[in-house]
């Protein structure tokens, strides 16, 4: 049986010896997605040299995953840069020429994402009929009027009535339904079509929010999510190019792939014993010697770690390696936290952080790419949207497992065909997406083909020559696509999720301004250690920090939110050690 032992530093590692002599803080980043890479890059650029990134999977990128098939690149995860004005992801891509081949059609300003703004969306019913364009436009205008109302509850602090159940979906469905029924000009047949379209639009909203159902998204908090102005952009060469740009400035030895973490043992030095007994590591570094030169010479002013000093944090890996650290930045998804928070932290998380994890939502949004020999859709068609006529009176977006395919809201046409070939991208979310993930490729391709035949009224549509699909919900590294504010949650829960541990009764903000804060806020100081309780000894602040898209109050669910959250947590540590690094210069 394998035993868990602490990682010992190599005594003949000159780089590591230099780091320890200088009292360099050791930072471990868990996760090599956009948040983790952004945090590591920011720390390294500001003089932190003892940084390790632990990634559970065999690749970097997290929920960015570009797959190259033939000459085309397909995005299983993040696809669009949402907004351009002040968006760090956009500026990074633009500055490095990643948008040079982005076509005008791929610079969409529409709210509902398509691969091209050119052409028209074809709304089809399960009876093989295309809904007239004027009916679609009338419904779309009505729906967007109501959607704009959903933003006002947060932005104007409007009270939410009991009938809405504080649900975006319930409010939208009933408001649109009432307006359709009250319209004196529409014949009954048209009203029935429009009522059925409500469910299709709400399926799209569910996919965009990555919820099981938009009914589960909080109406009172919905307007807090902030859209960055400017167009949405697609990166033709793949969103992974942005990930690789972030990773370029990080030495290869810093990132360890295939290194899942079992548990974070924090508050080790101030409340003994906590977690496993860990011998302090010697004069060395966790990373392998890269041969990039010694940091020897005179020891600048700084803190020397005594041999008997206990590390405040120890990261226990699945391979039984124990990695001591001063600080750990946790970037795992909200889905992983929901599944593992009870075993992932020792001691356990504070009650308010656990409550925030429970209240906030994360769901699964999956893509299904179908490649065909020839297009069966017209050149003016940019998407095929599925409207089930028997859902005109439906008030639920949940289906039994055998009807999982009803959650597919439609297929977008990938554009331009010169780049992608003849490919459709289907969208599905929620529990039905998890059922889809459990099916094999042949079954999914067969069901999707039958749906396309049914809704287009063309029984001769061939099966696709190839299928590619995502599986974010069942992937143990993610357990979902991205977060949303669930009914019962608010932006305050996002702040609680992001709050570093341990909490303290007063704080000095990361930007250096002194503030008096309520109990439970973090302790931040330029001094690396603070003693809060003489009976417990010195408590190092910010032992465990949290980043990732779910921790950004305004930009949750986005790549720029993830990147900014990583930079935010790095900035806390950079400010905390500012004096140390200034003395060393």
UniProtKB/TrEMBL annotation:
Q: Which GO terms describe its biological process?
A: spermine catabolic process
Give the molecular function GO annotations. polyamine oxidase activity
Which residue range or ranges hold the Amine oxidase domain? 34-268, 309-574
GO CC annotation terms, alphabetical: cytosol; nuclear membrane; nucleoplasm
Q: What's in the keyword line of the UniProt record?
A: FAD, Flavoprotein
The reply on keyword Cell inner membrane is: no
Instruction: List required co-factors.
Output: FAD
Where is the region Disordered? 271-310, 505-541
Question: Where do Polar residues bias regions lie?
Answer: 506-518
Renumbered to this chain, the Basic and acidic residues biased-composition regions fall at 274-289
The keyword Flavoprotein is annotated on this UniProt entry: yes
Q: Which Pfam families match?
A: Amino_oxidase (PF01593)
What top-level branch of life does the organism fall under? Eukaryota
Matching PANTHER family: FLAVIN MONOAMINE OXIDASE, SPERMINE OXIDASE
Name by which UniProt lists this protein: Spermine oxidase
Q: What is the organism field in this record?
A: Propithecus coquereli (Coquerel's sifaka)
